[in-house]
Amino acid sequence: MGHGHDHLHDHSHAAAAGGDLPEALDLSVPTAELSSSDASRRRFLLGAGLLGAGAAASVLAQPGAAEAAGLPHTHDQVGGGTDKGGFRWLAGDHHIHTQYSSDAQYRVLDQAQKGHAYGLDWLVITDHGSATHAKIGVDKVNPDIVKTRSALKGLLTFQGLEWNIPAAEHATVFVHPGKNEVAVLKQFENAYDGSLLPSTNTAAQNEAMAIAGIQFLGEQVRKRKIDGALFFANHPARRGIDSPHEIRNWRDADPTVAVGFEGAPGHQAAGIPAPNGRGGARGYYDNNPSAASFPGYPLESYRTWGGFDWMTATVGGLWDSLLAEGKAWWITVNSDSHVNYLDQTGRGPGSDFDANGKYNDPVYTGTINTSAGDFWPGYYGRTNVGASSFSYKAVMDGLRAGRVWVDHGRLIKNLDARVRVTGDRREHTGTPLGGVLQVKRGTSTELVLDIDLQDVPNWAGFVAALKRVDVIVGTVTGPVADKDTYTTPNTRVVKSFEVTESSGRITFTYQLGRLDKPFYLRVRGTDGNRTQPGLLGTAVDPYGPQLDVVGAADPWGDLWFYTNPIWVLPR
Q1: How many angstroms separate the CA atoms of 557 and 529, rounded?
Q2: Do 242 and 169 meet the contact criterion of CB atoms below 8 Å apart?
Q3: Rounded to whole angstroms, how far apart are CA atoms 569 and 440?
Q4: How far from the centroid of its chain's Cα atoms is residue 52's Cα?
Q5: Of 484, 425, 475, which Cα lies nearest the Cα of 450?
Q6: Three-class SS of 15-64
Q7: Could you tell me which of 61, 69, 91, 94 has the C-alpha nearest to residue 79?
Q8: Range with lowest mean pLDDT among 65-69, 265-269, 290-294
Q9: Which of 188, 333, 372, 466 has its Cβ near the most Cβ atoms within 10 Å?
Q10: CA Rg value for the chain
């Protein structure tokens, strides 16, 4: 980029275009031929999980800001999205069910039309993995998805499924559209879905099958049967059965496929208090430990915190322990839409799901459903992806690269976060979300955060107001000795910015100091309505999200946004 310091994603882009990769990053150069400094640099990156099999594709080899600069303005574009920071930000939802799920009811087109109307640019249809779905549904839903792609040109509609992870919870798995999308998903589901495996399998055998399933998806990409595949673990703390070592093993199985988990679950409407709503728990997080649960998790992990999963909401917790290792692991939000709050339809009469693999088309009932736990896609939560264009590949590339921020209730309009060498004021310079900035030790760096405040009502009818922005920083310490580690000692909120403006654009700059050790940072923001000290104490997180109480968890009562991390490493 010609401004005197290195961006690893720019080096990787240069290599793809025929340029040279630094020798420390080029694994075709034997370590014995490296200088001592380059050899040390390579050892650190390998140990931190930022280099090696698959890691370059998930962290290092991402498009730089320069590559994305000069995108056309929104009014010249096909599809939706907004331009900011040199990227086209596309809102989406990767966890949606239809009449091809045994516990849902809507047509693909119903979900897609509503999602698009509520502001989404992309979504993934993820009906439940099951014997019926594997046998019939994965084939039968595809024509509906293909028709939806044709009917809604401004919406990118992916086909996927909700995988029953062997020995664990659920996950979104989806692939790039193409002639083999059904065949690959069908083969994957039949071979690796937990509901179809022998009941005599041990936990160790099932954990190995989960790893094999992720590796299978990566192999289909390498064989060019499909152009991409992604995995996100869904509602990871809901039942306590996604242990820390399993999460690490999924990521390590293939970091180009297994890239993250839900930072906040769907089913947020389940928390609307009675009599207006179900009066339950946000996300259906109303469980207690079972024999299958990881015994180390605290009781508080079985509830949401400000609507977010405990693994994400706890500063210094499980997500941070992964980031402190240098592992590329991203967060998302979604609807998990099955049956939606205030809807007036029901399953078509005469349905035989077991025989047909679907319910008949929904019919109007004239009854308003106040007990449903879900919102329509796009109504409440958004996963915002920084893409290079409006395309399936660009969305998958942006997700894989971690150029993602999430919010509830349209808390903000847009944001751009970058880390750059202190004093570099050129537009779009610096390293964006998901990126790795590498500079000489002793170099001063700064975070620049540019936020467009909300000025239009959300779908609940009010204009959300951002009141505080927190900067969270953690030291990169490398691999953990115990893969069931779920805390990290050196991550904390280092700065809080109070927001007094009610509209327009605000910019915060935070000085990160002279680089003396590798670190990462991430950002969150809130309307400030409900806060409490984090689980690890006020010195770590003085004003974090509040523990949600079953029966009194209005999802509109507190709104948050979270970004994915940026790393800063010495070279």
Answers
A1: 7
A2: yes
A3: 8
A4: 22
A5: 425
A6: HHCCCCCCCCCCCCCCHHHCCHHHHHHHHHHHHCCCCCCCHHHHHHCCCC
A7: 91
A8: 65-69
A9: 333
A10: 22
Burial of residue 409 (number of CB atoms within 10 Å: 0-12, 13-18, 19+): buried
What the block records as the tokens of 521 is 């940072």
Q: What is the DSSP string of 183-243?
A: HHHHHHHHHH-GGGS-TT--HHHHHHHHHHHHHHHHHHHHTTSSS-EEEEEESTTSSS-S-
Q: Decide: 141 and 126 in contact? Cβ < 8 Å.
A: no
Residue 200 CB-density burial (10 A; 0-12 exposed, 13-18 middle, 19+ buried): exposed
Query: What is the number of other CB atoms lying within 10 angstroms of the CB of residue 115?
Result: 26
Task: State how far the Cα of 168 lies from the Cα of 203, in Å rounded to an integer.
Answer: 9
Could you tell me which residue, 74 or 558, shows the higher pLDDT?
558
Do residues 170 and 158 make contact, with C-beta atoms less than 8 angstroms apart?
no
pTM: 0.88
- Dihedral class, residue 528 (left if φ above 0, else alpha if ψ from -120 to 50, else beta): left
Q: Residue 544: helix, strand or coil by DSSP?
A: strand
Q: Minimal CA–CA distance to 282: which of 96, 557, 528, 555?
A: 555
Q: Is the pLDDT of residue 540 over 70?
A: yes
Say what angle helices 181-192 and 138-151 make with each other, to 10 degrees.
150
User: At 171, which helix (H) or strand (E)?
Assistant: strand 170-175
Q: Which amino acid is at 26?
A: D
CA 350 to chain CA centroid, Å, is 38
- Ramachandran sector of residue 521 (left: φ over 0; alpha: ψ -120 to 50; beta: rest): beta
How many residues does the structure list for the chain? 571
Q: How far is CA 383 from the centre of its chain?
A: 7
Query: Which pLDDT belongs to residue 55?
Result: 42
| Bridge pairing between strands 531-532 and 544-545 | antiparallel
